[in-house]
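ok so heres the complex, two chains, lmk if somethin looks off
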Amino acid sequence: MKKESHKNEVNEELTKLAPTLLALKNKRSGLKVPDNYFSDMQQAVLAQVVTPKPTATIRTMQVLSVAAAVLLAVLALWLLTPSQAPTYDAQLALEIEQYIFDNIDDFDTESIATFALMDSEPTEATVLEILEDIPEEDVEIYIENHLDELDLITLESYF
Amino acid sequence: MEAMRQPATAAKALKGLMDAYQERLYWQIRRVVLIHEDANDVLQNTFLKVYKNMGQFEGKSGLYTWLYRIAHNSAIDFLNQQKRRTEMLQTNTSEFPYQQLHADPWFDGEEAEIRLHQAVAALPERQQQVFKLRYFDEMPYLQMSKLLGTSEGALKASYHHAVKKVEDQLMHSNNSAQ
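and the predicted structre for the whole thing:
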């Protein structure tokens, strides 16, 4: 009933505006649909909307297993790696480096070049070699300031 | 709709949705693409999109409004793809679907009906949409307003202009034929 009133409303609009369109509207449409089209279409759509196959689940499990193994390996590596806390020698080298930097004007070019060309952590020997160029007075001041931190063996090696 | 979000019930829910809306959506699509096989492709894609994007339906608009928009956009996308393909391959295939209607086994209308589709295809896209909803589906302006998100006044004006243009085109082609 409601639909019929909408149809009448539309037809009334056309009567006033467009008689040719009204005449065409009352003719049957030439657009057809095959028999059983909608049930066939439904089947075609539902066939594409199947639940995920077991292979997909296995693949997901494989990915998760690999991810878990990698995570465990990284964790084990982190736990088993020795602590990277600076050793005593490294600490001393850092302090010397800082000292040289602070008093750079007091060093000759050759000493600086020797230090800069070192391609690894400075060894005790290279440090002592560099220290030879530092005025004795400065070394004594440094030792006085860091007396508590130096052991006897290290102190002996300076003299 | 909640049933479609659950994997166990999704397929059954989709079937329910198709039962309820497939015919309305088919005709919306068919009146855009005109050829049955094309309408079939677009309709199937529409339901697959609906199935995949169920999570995006927020319920702010009505369910049919949401379905209609997916169907309409899919049909327009299809036509645009077809147009690009025709231009790219420079084939002799007609750019407009009404030019292929003669070859569609699922069309047995008269020449006047093809001329009607030709005249409608010449309208701007929005006017085509309004014209089809009112002329073919006899949809009330209030419902169209909700569906298209446009005021009833604007829709009436748009339909009025569309009807005038199509009528003029039909009169012109009738006079040329005589």
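quick notes: Residues 113 and 128 of chain A are 15 Å apart (CA to CA). thats all i got rn
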